[in-house]
Specification:
The protein is of the alpha+beta class. Among the domains are: 1-46; 49-161, 2-Layer Sandwich (Beta-Lactamase); 186-292, Beta-Lactamase (2-Layer Sandwich), CATH 3.30.450.20; 310-409, Beta-Lactamase (2-Layer Sandwich). It is 40% helix and 27% strand. It has a six-stranded antiparallel β-sheet with strand order 10-9-8-13-12-11, sandwiched between helices. A five-stranded antiparallel β-sheet has the order 4-3-7-6-5. Helix 12 packs antiparallel against helix 13.
C-alpha cells in the first residue's frame, strides 16, 4: 500500500488527508521482472546455443560460455577487435543483411581457422563447423534509438553429418524400396471392418488384393500382450468417449518380426443420431525410437551405477547445502550409510572453524563465480579429520540447480607438507647454529690475529732500533732478511682478516682494469685493452692482490 498524507482543513478544523493506493500489482510486476531477468541470465549462461550481442557500432559486447566453447575462445575480450565485415566465412549477402539489421536464419559452413590467429586461444573441438545462425535486431535506447543485433549460433555439425549420412542412406534405400511413409487405416464401425493403405499392408504383410479386412483378423497381427490395449483403442472411439486416441503397440511384420508402432485415430464421421460412424488413423513405425529409449534407459542406469561405484568421492547438494546424493565411496570414507548422509547439511561434516569459509565457497559457485578448487577439513562422526580438496560444479539435478562436488582425500599429502615444514625448520635452526659457531670462530680468530700482530709490531720496532746501530755488512744482510720475513708474516696475518669474510657478501659488478692498476708490477709498463669489461665477483676480489706475494 502506498500512502500520501497532506495537511488541510475539514469542517474548520486542522486535519490530514490520507490518500492510499494499492501498489500490490506494481510490486508483483517488479518481482516478475526481476525473476524474468534472472531466468534470462540463467538461459544466457547455460544455453547450449551460442549467444553473441553486438552494439549499434557492431562491437561485440556480450558472449555466452557456449559461444566461447564453440569457437575455442578463452576470454571474450580476445574478440574485441572482431568485425563481421572481415569474416571470410560470411557471404556478402549475410553481411548486407546484418548491416541493414534484417532478421534472418541460415545454415552455413564455418571454418574457425580462417579467423585471425590472435583471436584463437585454444583449439576448438573442430576447425570446420556447420552452424545454424539466426540474427535478430535489438533496440538500444540511450540518447537516440539505435539498433544492435543478437546472433544465435547453434553448432549442428553432428546433426549435419548425421543428416548427410541419413540422406545417403535414404537414397540407397530408395533404390530398393518403394516408399517409407506411414501406414493409414479407415475403420467402419457399423461393419466392424477396416481398410488399410498399401504401406500398412506392406508393414503387416497382408494380401494386397483385399481392400477391406475384418477387424478381428487384423488383431491377430497385434502382439498378444497389446491386444487388449488395441481393443480399448477402438472401443474408446466407437463409444464416442474420446474424439481422438493414440497408443503404442507391437505388430507383427513379415520382414522384421515384432515392431513397435505409434497408432493414432480420430472420429471422422457421425451418423444421423450423432453416433461415431467412421474412424481414420495412422500407424508410424517407432521401433528405432523405442530402441533409443531403451538404450537411453540402459545408459542412464549405467551412468548411475558408474557414478555410484567411482573410486572418487562424489556429493550433490542444493543451494541450502542439503545433501541430495552421495556415492558409495563417499559414504565409505565417512563411515556412514548413504541414507544417514542424504538430507543432512553439508556443513555438518566441516570442522567448525571452516564452516563460514565453506558456506561462502558454495554460495559463490551458485552465484556463477568460477573458483579454483579449495581445501576443506572434513569431520567424521568418529572425530577424525580428513583433509580434502573440493572441486564443485553447478549442475541441474532433478530439475533444480545443485552443486556436484568431487572430493579428493589429500590427508597424506598434507601430512607430507607438515613433515617438510618441520624439516625446513630443523634445517633453518641448523644453519643458524652453524652461523653462530662461525661467528664465534671469527671472534677467536680476530683476537688471536690481534695478539700476533701486536707481537709482530714489537719485533718490527726492535728491528728498526737495530738498524740504527752500526753493524757490519754481513749482519746487516741477515737483518734485512729478518725484516722481510716479518713483513711477509704480517701480510699473511692481515690477509686472513679478508679471507674469513669471503663469501659472506653479495657479489657485485667490478672493473678488472681498476683492480689490475692497483697491483705492483715493479714499475713495468702494462698495456690493457679490456673495453670497460666488468665481472660479477665477491667484493673482496681486490684484496687478493696480496696473493702475488704468497
Amino acid at each position: 500500500m502506498e500512502a500520501k498524507i497532506t495537511p488541510g482543513t475539514w469542517n474548520g478544523k486542522k486535519s490530514y488527508f490520507c490518500l492510499c493506493k494499492d501498489i500490490s500489482s506494481i510490486i508483483l510486476a517488479q518481482d516478475e521482472i526481476r525473476q524474468s531477468e534472472e531466468r534470462l541470465n540463467a538461459i544466457f549462461l547455460t544455453s547450449p546455443i551460442g549467444i553473441i550481442l553486438f552494439d549499434p557500432d557492431d562491437t561485440m559486447i556480450q558472449v555466452n560460455p557456449a559461444a566461447l566453447s564453440m569457437f575455442g575462445i578463452v576470454d571474450p575480450l580476445d574478440l574485441a577487435r572482431y568485425s563481421y565485415r572481415d569474416d571470410p566465412n560470411l557471404s556478402d549477402i549475410i553481411k548486407k543483411k546484418i548491416q541493414n539489421r534484417e532478421a534472418f536464419t541460415t545454415e552455413m559452413s564455418y571454418d574457425v581457422s580462417k579467423i585471425r590467429s590472435s583471436e584463437r586461444k585454444q583449439p576448438a573441438s573442430s576447425d570446420m563447423l556447420y552452424l545454424r545462425m539466426m540474427a535478430v535486431p535489438v533496440i538500444f535506447s540511450e540518447q537516440e534509438v539505435r539498433e544492435g543485433f543478437y546472433v544465435l549460433v547453434e553448432d549442428i555439425t553432428t546433426q549435419h553429418h548425421v543428416e548427410s549420412e541419413l540422406r545417403q542412406l535414404t537414397q540407397k534405400l530408395g533404390r530398393i524400396m518403394d516408399a517409407s511413409d506411414d501406414g493409414f487405416f479407415s475403420y467402419h464401425i457399423q461393419g466392424d471392418t477396416i481398410s488399410l493403405s498399401p504401406r500398412l499392408i506392406q508393414m503387416v504383410g497382408l494380401s494386397i488384393n483385399r481392400e477391406v479386412y475384418p477387424l478381428t483378423s487384423i488383431l491377430q497381427y497385434v502382439h498378444p500382450d497389446d491386444r487388449d490395449i488395441t481393443q480399448s483403442f477402438f472401443h474408446s472411439l466407437k463409444g464416442g468417449a474420446q474424439e481422438a486416441v493414440s497408443s503404442e503397440i507391437r505388430i507383427k511384420s513379415l520382414e522384421n518380426g515384432w515392431i513397435w508402432v505409434y497408432i493414432r485415430g480420430k472420429i471422422t464421421g457421425f451418423d444421423e443420431e450423432g453416433e461415431p460412424q467412421n474412424i481414420a488413423g495412422a500407424v508410424t513405425d517407432i521401433t528405432r525410437r523405442k530402441e533409443s529409449e531403451q538404450k537411453l534407459l540402459e545408459s542412464e542406469t549405467f551412468n548411475r551405477v558408474l557414478i555410484t561405484s567411482l573410486p572418487e568421492n562424489l556429493m550433490v547438494f542444493d543451494k541450502t547445502g542439503t545433501i541430495l546424493f552421495v556415492n558409495d565411496n563417499s559414504s565409505h570414507a565417512m563411515q556412514m550409510a548413504n541414507e544417514e548422509i542424504v538430507g543432512r547439511n553439508v556443513l555438518d561434516f566441516v570442522v567448525p572453524e571452516m564452516r563460514s569459509f565453506a558456506r561462502s565457497q558454495y554460495e559463490k559457485r551458485f552465484q556463477g563465480e568460477l573458483l579454483e578448487p579449495c581445501e576443506i577439513r572434513i569431520l567424521r562422526p568418529d572425530g577424525n579429520v580428513i583433509d580434502a580438496e573440493v572441486q564443485a560444479t553447478i549442475i541441474s539435478y532433478k530439475g533444480n540447480p545443485a552443486a556436484l562436488a568431487l572430493i579428493a582425500d589429500i590427508t597424506e599429502r598434507k601430512r607430507g607438507e607438515e613433515n617438510l615444514e618441520r624439516y625446513s625448520e630443523t634445517l633453518r635452526e641448523t644453519v643458524e647454529a652453524l652461523a653462530s659457531a662461525n661467528r664465534k670462530l671469527n671472534l677467536l680468530s680476530n683476537v688471536t690475529r690481534h695478539d700476533i700482530l701486536n707481537q709482530i709490531h714489537i719485533i718490527t720496532s726492535y728491528l728498526a732500533l737495530l738498524k740504527e746501530i752500526p753493524i757490519d755488512s754481513e749482519t746487516g744482510h741477515f737483518l734485512e732478511k729478518i725484516v722481510s720475513a716479518v713483513g711477509f708474516i704480517q701480510r699473511h696475518i692481515e690477509f686472513t682478516r679478508n679471507y674469513q669474510d669471503l663469501g659472506l657478501h653479495t657479489p657485485v659488478w667490478q672493473s678488472p682494469e681498476e683492480i689490475i692498476k692497483e697491483l705492483n708490477f715493479a714499475k713495468k709498463h702494462l698495456v690493457m685493452h679490456l673495453d670497460n669489461l666488468e665481472i660479477f665477483a665477491d667484493p673482496l676480489l681486490p684484496k687478493f692482490q696480496d696473493c702475488q706475494d704468497a
